[in-house]
Amino acid sequence: MVAAAALTAPAVRRHWAPGVASATRAMSADAPCGDAAAWFGLSGDGAAPTQGLLAIVDGLGHGAEAACAAEAAVQALAAAPDADLPALMRRLDGALGSLRGAAVGLVRVQGCRLQQAGVGNTRCMRLRSGHMTRLPSQNGIVGGGLPTRISVSELDLAPGDWLLLFSDGLAESLQLPVLLPEWERDPGLLCEHLLQQAAPGRDDAGVLVMQMGGG
């Protein structure tokens, strides 16, 4: 019988802006989550979230040291969220150099376009009309093996598109054949659904979603 302390922790949801939400879940109820998610809006106070930075961070391993690395990464991003993606990756590499390191996925939303960069085992997808487009992530560790050149991918965006960023606590084969209406009203429910359906529970897990034109 599994001891209660070893049970998976409940999900922690956060609503960042209209159409933007995240959920993280620690592998164990007695340890902090080493995954973090963040949205840095650049559209102005009260404006629809059409400009900004999405980030998913997976501190290496799990437990307190992983959580410390993930939090340090979020703080470093908060200091310069409008910097270009390669510059942000280099900033994170410096901030995590004395810590455990992390896998990081970043998406810059700019109206009807996105730019994306990923280092390590994070995932980024655009869901449009039932079709999933998966964006790449480079091999490496932010804070201990950053690639010399950070690759940046670009993709178009349209109203109704969903962006999904998640850590390797969720299965890479994740699919969403049906989108429920309540997820549009509360994207945090979609985050919880993904954790329940796709996360095997053997690692910390984090997911961040954004619906274009959501509100």
Automatic annotation (TrEMBL):
It comes from the Bacteria. Transmembrane segments: none annotated. Coiled coil: none annotated. Residues 24-212 form the PPM-type phosphatase domain. Gene3D superfamilies: PPM-type phosphatase domain. It holds the Pfam family SpoIIE. InterPro entries: PPM-type-like_dom_sf, PPM-type_phosphatase-like_dom, Ptase_RsbX. This is PPM-type phosphatase domain-containing protein. It comes from Rubrivivax gelatinosus.
